[in-house]
Structure formats: structure tokens, C-alpha cells
């Protein structure tokens, strides 16, 4: 489509040049006609450029960069990201180029998530959505009015490839809840052409940014079948709360292990949507949730900080609850139960062995009969030095406190007081 538009614009440019030439040379009547056609062509050109963005903006796209550089120059789009290594936050930032992330749902959260990962220089993004861009989406971030009518996946690829042409973008305009859509979804996740030596599926992480329970259950099913780690995200219908959740098949609760209360009570989701009632959305809440989701994704992929298992966000109280959920041994999802068995037999024993090794190396007196560890006393003596410069403790530290000494000194003080009292009475 874009190539055809570019060819059309090039043809219009040729006709425009010949008309400009004719408007200077021919008789007055012909000159008027030439100018008239020239104006029409300019209008068509402007409209096409607005619709498809193939004008001067497209020519401004930068060329691809082979290796990420840490060089601090204005022309390097990766200098600030590579600085994370210099600051000791990330061991090897450039590894981000090896990773593939699938984003299901390119709406208010998914589109911003895709943009953040693109700007971070992710290796490959797989985008899934069946919807089109509407003017009603303009209260959110990312899409702009010039993209109304385009599929969300095409519009996203257009914008993202302009922002960072190094990212490999795959667009899937389909509904994963249909039979054929689910098949394509599964085969695209399994495809390893981007990194043939990768273990497991062809993607490192699946991010669910959909807005309904049915689609979440489909992502859950696919990930349970593939043993694929994924992250869930959601924003409430009243736009003032949201959450993100990490799901590792077999290790943490899957989406079917602990379904939302309303669904667990057997209510059909379709009946929940009230006729004529439009769900609210705010760019702020969606931006916060997308930010939390991508932050957790970066921590998971680049192995820094703590990857949160569940993080909620209540915008009205600025409350961020966090918790962990174990898988349900009675989960009705068969693939979830299979992954739970594999985890118990294969992964858990390895984890326990690793933890034991860690405990042994941390223990100061591991050779005693009762395995009792003793804490190093020197840690306490340095306690006061842990305070920031300029601050002093008002009360003594527990280890600095000394029992008062009762004995000859106390008696001396009493005798001294008696003498002072007698002296006063004598005056
Ligand atoms: Zn489950």
C-alpha cells in the first residue's frame, strides 16, 4: 500500500512540474487551466501525505544501526540506555536486541507498551489486534487522528518503524478468540526464525493488554500449553484502578487458578456490559499501567531488580498493593495441572538445592552440631555509621545501652547529697 502511494505521489510530482512549466509558456487561457490543475494536484498531494505519512516526515526516518553503542553523542539513540550499564543497573543492556515480546491487544495499554519497548530497542515485537483506530480512542496516548480507519496493527507498525527501524515488527490483524485466529497466534509464538537456538517457544514473553476475560483466557490457554511465561495487565472500567501480574505456568497461579469473583460465580461476561453504558478510560491510568508493565518486562528480560508477581494500582488513594499467588492444585485448566506437575518434579528440586548452597555459604558457623548460625557482632558496632551524614540518633542504640552500675559510686553520690542538704539547713 505504502509503495503504491509513494509511486502515485511521484507521478503527481512529475505532472506538477510539467504544469508549472506550461503555466509560464502557453497562452493566457491555457495558463489559467494549467494553474487550476496545479492547485488540484497540490491539494491531492497534501491529503495523501496526511493520510499515509509518506511525505517529508517519512524521509526523516533514520537508517538502521548494527551495534548498540555507549558513545555519548547527540546522534546516538541508545546512549542513555547503554548508560544503565555504566551506572551498574544492568549487566548487559545490548542483550535486549535478542528478545522477542508478543503484545496481545494494541489499545490504550498495548500501544503505549509497544512504543516504550520500541524506544528501549527491543529485538522483535509481535503485535496482535483486530480492531481499527477510531476518533473515540483519541483520549488515549499513541494513535493520532490521521490514523483513523487504519487497523491498529498497521497504524502501530507505521509509527513504531519510524521511531526505531532497528526493531523487527510483526503485525497480526486477527482475533485470537476465533479458531483460525488462535491457530495463527500459536504458530506465530512457536516460530523460531528470529533466534533459532532459543529454548522453548519463539518468544521470550507474552504481554496481555486485552480488555476482556475471554481473550485473557485464550492467552492463558496458549501460554499454559507452551509453558510460556507471560504478564497480564488490566485497567478497570471506571478508569481509576489497574494491575499487572506475572504468570509462570506451573510456578504461579494461572488466570484460571483464581478467576475474578464475578466470573467464578458463573456470570456470563457478555451480560456484564450494560447497553448504552460506555466504559471510561484515562490516558493517565493507562500510561501508569503500561509503564509498570514495561518496567517489569525490562527487569524480567535484563535480569535486574525484583520482578513483581502482582502489583495493583488504586488511583484514588495512590495505593499499590502487591502479593504472590500460588497455583491452584484443583485448577480446571488441564495444561496448568501438567505444568504444575513438571514444576514439582523438575524445577522445585533444583531450586531447593540452589537455595541450600546459598544458605551454606551465608552461614558463619555451619560446622556446629545444631546448624545454628551466629550473627557477626561487627555489624552492630557499625550501626550508627549507617545514618546519613549530619544525622545523629536521639536515643542510644540497643547495643550501645549499658546497664547502670549500682555500688560504691551510688553510695558516694547519696552521701554527697546528704552533706549538701545538711549544709543548706545549717545556713
Ligand atoms: Zn491454573
TrEMBL record:
Residues 78-332 form the THIF-type NAD/FAD binding fold domain. Keywords: ATP-binding, Metal-binding, Nucleotide-binding, Ubl conjugation pathway, Zinc. InterPro entries: D-isomer_DH_CS1 (IPR029752), ThiF/MoeB/HesA (IPR045886), ThiF_NAD_FAD-bd (IPR000594), Ubiquitin-activating_enz (IPR035985). Pfam families: ThiF. One of its GO terms (biological process) is protein ufmylation. GO terms for cellular component: cytosol. GO terms for molecular function: ATP binding; metal ion binding; UFM1 activating enzyme activity. Belongs to the ubiquitin-activating E1 family. UBA5 subfamily. PANTHER family: UBIQUITIN-ACTIVATING ENZYME E1, UBIQUITIN-LIKE MODIFIER-ACTIVATING ENZYME 5. This is Ubiquitin-like modifier-activating enzyme 5. It comes from Genlisea aurea.
Amino acid at each position: 500500500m505504502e509503495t503504491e502511494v509513494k509511486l502515485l505521489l511521484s507521478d503527481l510530482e512529475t505532472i506538477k512540474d510539467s504544469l508549472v512549466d506550461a503555466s509560464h509558456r502557453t497562452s493566457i487561457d491555457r495558463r489559467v487551466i494549467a494553474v487550476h490543475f496545479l492547485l488540484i494536484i497540490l491539494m491531492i498531494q497534501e491529503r495523501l501525505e496526511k493520510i499515509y505519512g509518506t511525505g517529508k516526515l517519512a524521509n526523516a526516518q533514520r537508517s538502521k544501526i548494527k551495534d548498540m553503542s555507549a558513545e555519548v553523542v547527540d546522534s546516538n539513540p541508545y546512549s542513555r540506555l547503554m548508560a544503565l550499564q555504566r551506572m551498574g543497573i544492568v549487566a548487559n543492556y545490548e542483550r535486549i536486541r535478542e528478545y522477542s515480546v508478543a503484545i496481545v491487544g494494541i489499545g490504550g495499554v498495548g500501544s503505549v507498551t509497544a512504543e516504550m519497548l520500541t524506544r528501549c530497542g527491543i529485538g522483535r515485537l509481535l503485535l496482535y489486534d483486530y480492531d481499527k483506530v477510531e476518533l473515540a480512542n483519541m483520549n488515549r496516548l499513541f494513535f493520532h487522528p490521521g490514523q483513523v480507519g487504519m487497523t491498529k496493527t498497521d497504524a502501530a507498525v507505521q509509527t513504531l518503524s519510524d521511531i526505531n527501524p532497528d526493531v523487527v515488527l510483526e503485525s497480526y490483524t486477527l482475533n485470537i478468540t476465533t479458531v483460525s485466529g488462535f491457530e495463527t497466534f500459536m504458530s506465530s509464538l512457536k516460530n523460531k526464525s528470529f533466534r533459532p537456538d532459543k529454548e522453548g517457544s519463539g518468544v521470550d514473553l507474552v504481554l496481555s493488554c486485552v480488555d476482556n476475560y475471554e481473550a485473557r483466557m485464550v492467552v492463558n490457554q496458549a501460554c499454559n500449553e507452551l509453558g510460556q511465561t507471560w504478564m497480564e495487565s488490566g485497567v478497570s472500567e471506571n478508569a481509576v484502578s489497574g494491575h499487572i501480574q506475572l504468570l509462570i505456568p506451573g510456578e504461579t497461579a494461572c488466570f484460571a487458578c483464581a478467576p475474578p469473583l464475578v466470573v467464578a460465580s458463573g456470570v456470563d461476561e457478555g451480560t456484564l456490559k450494560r447497553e448504552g453504558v460506555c466504559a471510561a478510560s484515562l490516558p493517565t491510568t493507562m500510561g501508569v499501567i503500561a509503564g509498570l508493565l514495561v518496567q517489569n518486562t525490562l527487569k524480567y528480560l535484563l535480569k535486574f531488580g525484583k520482578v513483581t508477581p502482582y502489583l495493583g494500582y488504586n488511583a484514588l488513594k495512590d495505593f499499590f498493593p502487591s502479593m504472590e499467588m500460588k497455583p491452584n492444585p484443583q485448577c480446571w485448566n488441564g495444561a496448568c495441572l501438567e505444568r504444575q506437575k513438571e514444576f514439582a518434579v523438575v524445577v522445585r528440586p533444583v531450586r531447593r538445592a540452589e537455595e541450600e548452597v546459598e544458605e551454606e555459604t551465608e552461614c558463619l558457623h555451619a560446622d556446629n552440631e545444631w546448624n545454628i548460625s551466629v550473627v557477626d557482632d561487627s555489624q552492630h558496632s557499625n550501626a550508627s555509621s549507617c545514618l546519613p551524614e549530619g544525622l545523629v540518633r536521639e536515643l542510644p542504640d540497643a547495643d550501645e545501652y549499658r546497664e547502670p552500675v549500682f555500688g560504691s559510686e551510688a553510695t558516694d553520690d547519696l552521701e554527697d547529697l546528704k552533706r549538701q542538704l545538711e549544709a543548706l539547713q545549717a545556713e
